[in-house]
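Shall we go through a protein fold together, starting from nothing but its sequence? Please make up or recall a protein chain and show it to me in full. Go ahead whenever you are ready, and we will take it from there.
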Amino acid sequence: MAARQPPALMEELVEEILLRVPPDEPERLMRAAVVCKPWCRLVCGPGFRRRFRERHGAPPLLGIISNRMNEAGAKLARFVPTGSFRPPRADRINWLAIDSRHGRVLLRNSFSNAAVYVAVWDPITDELLALPKTPWMMPSSDTMYNYKGAVLCAADGCDHLDCHGGPFLVVFVGVGAHDNTMSSYVYSSEANAWSEQAHHQYLGHLWESVSSTLVENALYFVVNKSPGILKYNLGTRETTAISCPTMTNPHVALMVAEGGGLGCATIRSSKLCLWSQEVGPGGGHSGWALDRTIELSTLVPAGHSIREFDVASSVNGGGIIHVGTYQGCRSFTTDLKSGKFSEVGFTAILENMVPFISFYTPEHSWN
């Protein structure tokens, strides 16, 4: 007599198990989806996807976009995985990454001494949307020669756990090519158009190698005065200057502070210093508070003797700091919540890296 098959697990029990899969290990959900049709329908369903993202909160770091050259000498933006996720296309030849947020990467063309072209790329779906040109992109009196761009979700009420395919904004702030005038433009995907130029007081040249950060309704950029921080209010399009914490290393990464609000990370020797902005009675900047320090040299994996680190970037709202060293261009991430310290791999020049965070579930592969 043949042995009876064990009873199938109840779908509710299967869901509770799969909801506990770590979001930075998406291959586990992929394996579950090919077990049987009921499991596939479960993990690809909108209800499971919503509960999975709500359970885990901030999306995981899936990779680092590293700007580099290939063997033929062409500049490109390369997706360097930090886990098991692999994008449909790892390289975007003749493009360079300048920002990433809410599941999108902002690219510009890599040709120097030419008109600037920008595009928004979704590494998960490999969709690339070229944006219309504006006067500042063309060689003229309005050209920006020093600028920073940022991309962000524009959907009302969005929790930013799954922004794929929704409306977005692109913001560029820069300094004019012929004088020290500062201006900005905002692109809306819903209108498929750029705003009129807004003029601002000159607050310094923007550090193109430092990623911006989004805190509530403002973008923050690092400028070279002292150095300092430029606050760009998305509602009013006004800019204000903020001083940086006292630093012994000129590099700084902007981030969302652990308690909310603006934060930043700096390096002092081999210590990672985490700061939060202090706000005065009128809501303005009144200084910085050192929240804690992390000794990085004690976290380096066995066999490494790296002692000099540099802050490369931070993951917006993800509690992850990306650090690197000039000794062999090694690159690491440190998770501020779990304390996990991981090597990313060789990522070329430290300044040319943009972190990419997003949830990835099986429906992305089959849609």
The mean pLDDT is 81. Helices lie at 11-18, 27-33, 37-44, 46-56, 363-366. The longest helix spans residues 46-56. Residues 11-57 form one domain.
